[in-house]
Amino acid sequence: MSTETGPAIEPAQMPDGVRVSGDVHVRLEHVDKIFPGRGRRGVPQAALKDVDLEIRRGEVFGIIGYSGAGKSTLLRLINGLEVPSSGQVLVGGHELTALGERGRREVRRDIGMVFQQFNLFRSRTVAGNVAYPLKVAGLGRDERERRVARLLDFVGLLDRAHDHPEQLSGGQKQRVGIARALATEPSLLLADEATSALDPETTGEVLGLLRRVNRDLGVTIVLITHELDVIRAVADRVAVLDAGRVVETGSVYDVFARPQTEAAARFIGTTLRDRPSPATLARLRATHSGRLVTVRVRDQAGFQTRLARTFLDHQVAAEIVFGGISELQDRPVGGLTFELTGPDGAVDTALAALRADGVDLIEEPE
Ligand SMILES: Nc1ncnc2c1ncn2[C@@H]1O[C@H](COP(=O)(O)OP(=O)(O)OP(=O)(O)O)[C@@H](O)[C@H]1O
């Protein structure tokens, strides 16, 4: 039996909603964003179409989708760098389009940004990078130094304060990026592919830090990424963007374990590794002559007893030949592939009984 391994990153420990206060931090209502076509004959690009979204204060909210789905545009609308073609964007209750540039700047002051390529000043030290937004905000030198020391301590880089960014690893650079984003004590942090330039180990380190930013400082985090394991590791809720539309929103467990739309299922695809790959299936077929059936394991109490009893009742021999169960938001998720042997009619009746009982099963194709 092959055993699945979970993601390299530990899943979030808190169940959905525990530390979320419930009030809305960011709201998008019927937002369209159409870019004029590039060049004289350019065709206008609808980057976002009728997007409705609610991000609660204190949660980690993930936005996933293929390249070009509209993720960056969505983030730029939230920080007021783009304005919607129609619809409304509200941040902390402020409707951004109604504010004008000055008001938007005020709102932006309460938003930190973290970027894929870190965007650090190469000519400044680590401390100088973190101090920069404080200087812009007009804080005095003593207060700046106090805050920079506190932030560098928080991200574990106090001993690197006088180094320059090129002396740091990618993960350390991103930790400086996060310290800088937090310097003005924002209540909202927007992370744009914050770990996409990092290796898996460093990704875990940065995600651990983002989780502390959320839990210890109570900062709402909006994370856009195409990396499903990142969402799985830190997000409470997630929205799936497909060609400019939000096709699904919900807790990470619900969206990943029970996608409701074909588009979300396609994107989430094999991330849960709850079915054997075609290559594994071919190997299984070579050594097992019975019918192969995969049962999706979700948080259904008593389902294994029901399985065992049904197979027994119908005198079907069931042997697990592949599978694994891991955790997502503290709830079980996975798949078990059985080789079923017995008269064809008995196997069919057992499968029908299980399906009628709500068991999610797939007979693997020959
Ligand atoms: N300033 C712009 N002018 C014209 N078209 C744009 C502009 N910005 C984005 N687009 C288009 O809008 C669509 C969505 O782009 P966006 O960058 O938001 O997607 P994304 O999901 O962030 O993709 P990626 O992961 O590749 O960054 C794309 O078709 C893109 O070409």
From TrEMBL:
<keyword id="KW-0029">Amino-acid transport</keyword>
<keyword id="KW-1278">Translocase</keyword>
<dbReference type="InterPro" id="IPR045865">
    <property type="entry name" value="ACT-like_dom_sf"/>
</dbReference>
<keyword id="KW-0067">ATP-binding</keyword>
<comment type="function">
    <text>Part of the ABC transporter FtsEX involved in cellular division. Has ATPase activity.</text>
</comment>
<comment type="similarity">
    <text>Belongs to the ABC transporter superfamily.</text>
</comment>
<dbReference type="InterPro" id="IPR017871">
    <property type="entry name" value="ABC_transporter-like_CS"/>
</dbReference>
<protein>
    <submittedName>
        <fullName>Methionine import ATP-binding protein MetN</fullName>
    </submittedName>
</protein>
<keyword id="KW-0547">Nucleotide-binding</keyword>
<comment type="subunit">
    <text>Homodimer. Forms a membrane-associated complex with FtsX.</text>
</comment>
<keyword id="KW-0472">Membrane</keyword>
<dbReference type="GO" id="GO:0005524">
    <property type="term" value="F:ATP binding"/>
</dbReference>
<dbReference type="InterPro" id="IPR041701">
    <property type="entry name" value="MetN_ABC"/>
</dbReference>
<keyword id="KW-0813">Transport</keyword>
<keyword id="KW-1003">Cell membrane</keyword>
<feature type="domain" description="ABC transporter">
    <location>
        <begin position="26"/>
        <end position="268"/>
    </location>
</feature>
<dbReference type="InterPro" id="IPR018449">
    <property type="entry name" value="NIL_domain"/>
</dbReference>
<dbReference type="Pfam" id="PF09383">
    <property type="entry name" value="NIL"/>
</dbReference>
<dbReference type="InterPro" id="IPR003593">
    <property type="entry name" value="AAA+_ATPase"/>
</dbReference>
<dbReference type="InterPro" id="IPR050086">
    <property type="entry name" value="MetN_ABC_transporter-like"/>
</dbReference>
<dbReference type="GO" id="GO:0016887">
    <property type="term" value="F:ATP hydrolysis activity"/>
</dbReference>
<dbReference type="GO" id="GO:0005886">
    <property type="term" value="C:plasma membrane"/>
</dbReference>
<dbReference type="GO" id="GO:0006865">
    <property type="term" value="P:amino acid transport"/>
</dbReference>
<dbReference type="InterPro" id="IPR027417">
    <property type="entry name" value="P-loop_NTPase"/>
</dbReference>
<dbReference type="Pfam" id="PF00005">
    <property type="entry name" value="ABC_tran"/>
</dbReference>
<dbReference type="InterPro" id="IPR003439">
    <property type="entry name" value="ABC_transporter-like_ATP-bd"/>
</dbReference>
